[in-house]
Each structure stands twice: as structure tokens, then as C-alpha cells.
Amino acid sequence: MLYPQRVGALHLAAAGRYCLPDETMAYPYGLAADDDGKTMLWARRMRARLRAFLNRPVHLYIGTEDTARDETLRQAPALDALQGSTRHARAHHDAAALWAAAQAAGLPDRVSLTELPGCTHDVAWTIDTAGLARMVAAPGRAARRLAAAV
């Protein structure tokens, strides 16, 4: 969100957590400063660029089986309650938050969420077998839009 002018389109695959376009939550989960103000500059910069960010195509990719809660997944009670307890749930939550923010800003929906059947959190398998690299190279042909549960 910080430098949208440097990005033509954003592709996120199986992220462990997201910075949401929400000004009521403190950075790094949202765009507000934390209680002691240490993140005020970052939060202010991202809020100032939010509209430009939302006007970029954002493509999210998530494996249908990326549901493990292992040591590679960032886990915290507040994060789990806010974004979901798995990467799969968090991808759906982030897509819905981006759709809602774009709608609130009067911008077109430029977010897509592609579910990769049978994929876990094995990036090499997802690239080689499920074709993630092809999807990133040509998202218009490969991405399947999912309805937002907003």
C-alpha cells in the first residue's frame, strides 16, 4: 500500500497476514497508528496512498488446502480473531476487506481471489504442478473471481 505508483498489478500468494485497508486498526494489521505512536508515519503515508492502491489490480491466490496452523503461520489471538486462523481464511477476509474499501471509495472492483484446488502451503508444488506462475503471468485467463461475502 505504501508505493502504489510503483506497481502495475499486485499478486499475493498464500500470505500469512495482511495489512487491511481499515483506519480503525493499528498498523501492521490496519492503517491507524499504534497506541504509542511509533507507527504514525507509516500509517499516515499508507492512508494517503490508499485510494491509488485500491485503484490497482490486486490478485490473491490461495490453496484450498492451505489450512495448517504450523510454525510458519503467524499466530496471535488478536490476529486469528480479526483475520482468521488459517491462510485460506485470511485470504478470503482480505479480499472482502479490499472489495469493501474499493466500494466505499467509489472505485471499481479490481480484486480477484483465485482458489488453487488441492494446494497446501508448498510453494514449489503450487508453482510447478498447480500452475501458479502461469496464473501470475496471465491473471486475466486464469483467475476465477469469487463472490465477496461482504
From TrEMBL:
This is Alpha/beta hydrolase family protein. InterPro entries: AB_hydrolase_fold. Gene3D superfamilies: alpha/beta hydrolase.
